[in-house]
């Protein structure tokens, strides 16, 4: 894979386990957002829920997007103790997640 440069988008799709209370999901979302205060490499964090009319979500209901300035910043975030602790707890309530990192490219 070629080395790419530029802003890095870290996308997480989450499908939560059946029976997990909405309050529990909201608690984890707040903890995820708070990582911006603990990990300097995170430049932005946004999240939302599926609003598609195509019904192709395959049970994934939540999407989270974090922005980093470089691939190295993304790697530092993944290894950061605050992220590791959060991710471990998050995985206990998630049935399935998909993680994709990409560098946005301009139209050609």
From TrEMBL:
It comes from the Eukaryota. GO terms for biological process: pollen tube adhesion. InterPro entries: Dabb, Dimeric_a/b-barrel, HS1/DABB1-like. Residues 8-102 form the Stress-response A/B barrel domain. It holds the Pfam family Dabb. Homodimer. This is STRESS-RESPONSE A/B BARREL DOMAIN-CONTAINING PROTEIN HS1.
